[in-house]
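In keeping with the milestone schedule agreed at the kick-off meeting, the structural modelling team has produced records for the first pair of proteins. Each record is given below as a sequence line and a structure-token line. The laboratory manager (R.T.) confirmed that both were archived under the project's standard naming scheme.
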Amino acid sequence: IDIEILSAIAADQGFEYTLEFVGFDAALGGVESRQYDAVIAGMTITDERRQTFDFSDPYYIETLCVAAPPSGGVASLEDLRGRSVAVRNGVESEGWVQSLAETYGFDVTVFDDAEAVYRDVEAGNSAACVEFTANMGHAIRTGRATLSIIAESDPSDDYASPYGFAVARGENPELLAMFNAGLANIRDNGTYDAIIDKYVARQPS
């Protein structure tokens, strides 16, 4: 999603760029040290990061979801009481997961990666799983997970994560302005929705 949105915005605004594929921490450090002009990598906009970076308008609001096998007898969160829910490492710390576990009385089992989460649920060891909605939607669409989304966090609540294109604080204001202008344009002309729909699917196509 990030790369296709950047490509569409660059085409709209008429600028060229070179991508460097590095780890998340290296990307942030590279922008801070002025090695890179900007970063777009599912980077959540936070007040703490605003001390170091200037952000674009949010280009995506990430939410969390609960997914379960279509024939597993779990159609709602109420069906999870007393059962186990699989979560990928890094997602289990999200407040939404903990709030659901307390409200609906299920246990959380943590795995190292998404594939292990999907396989555990499909094997019947866990009744459902929690994952970022974009990741889950893409896994369902591509056949990596034979699951259905039964619940999703509200994109307007405290658990949503707005992603932003970022530059070093006080640097590259023209680039930031072009990103925002291009983002507005691709939202208006339908390009943005086409990109999102390509990756974020609720059910297999």
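The second protein of the pair:
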Amino acid sequence: MSLLFSETVLGPLKLQNCLVMCPLTRNRATDNIPNTLMVQYYAQRASAGLIITEGTSPSPNGLGYPRIPGIFSPAQVAGWKHITDAVHAKVAKMFVQLMHCGRVGHPLNLPAGARLLAPSAVAAEGEMYTDAEGLKPHPVPQAMTEADIKTAIAEFVQAAKNAMTAGFDGIELHSANGYLLEQFIRPNSNQRTDRYGGSIENRARFVLEVAEAVIGAIGKDRVGIRLSPFGVFNDMPLYDAMEADYTYLAQQLNVRGLVYIHLVDHSPMGAPPVPASMKAAFRKMFTRTLILSGGYDAARAESDLSAGKCDLIAVGRPILANPDLATRWKTGAALNAPDMATFYTPGPKGYIDYPALNG
């Protein structure tokens, strides 16, 4: 019997299978507001047990990329409610990923009055695309004061409450891929000398305070987190203490009782692999649901579930290009190839027009 396609649970939630749709940035939210195109996109993919949305900002300050959605205004909450209604009508569950981009952004992508914030005034290498002027170098961000940190925590809390109003089943904290939460964890981007910098206990403080605050607001059964140890995206280089630091983080997250850790291995995209020993350590130390993602096909997903390496399997590009991925994997049908040229472009092309098996 296939575990991948069997019903399972996530905390108190019943899932129709063990397949999770990864958070996938698609840049279709004009004016940062979820729209009818996005309703269709997510509803098409509701054969997954759990859908995790694209990175969604809890704050105007977090809108680092063009056309990414937020969940801090009434219009955004209303837009998301249409999406959760459509997904729930097809029995899937849905978490919104809260992504504050921090230093990975550009003022041209931010609304008036918003600021590019980070743990320290250290610019990320590389460039950011802007609709206004194309590619621009990442600017030097403003180092957050303790008051800024308190404000950001409050914004995450309000975003979590807004997610409940919008009908989500929970939220995922994006503490991966070089965004604000991970910027505090990593020593290259966090050069602070106060209680939020230095030792891992200090560098992890902001992430854990955010987790505690949102758990206090909506409950631990509704809060997950995404981590990318050994990920190098957005200028997050490897460092000697990484395995020890993330082991500490796993222990602390377990104490706080989050419903899941979503551990991503970016080696299929060219990053160093997450060592099997680290995945096994997370599995041992974290007693609730473990989601693994990174280059899975159906056979490997079934193998890792059967071996007890994780509880759920998350996939990105396969479900981007195959809205009915669960059916295709279950039947062994051929897969559509993803069109990389349309990953981040506005409009329906390459977004809602991938064919399903039933036409």
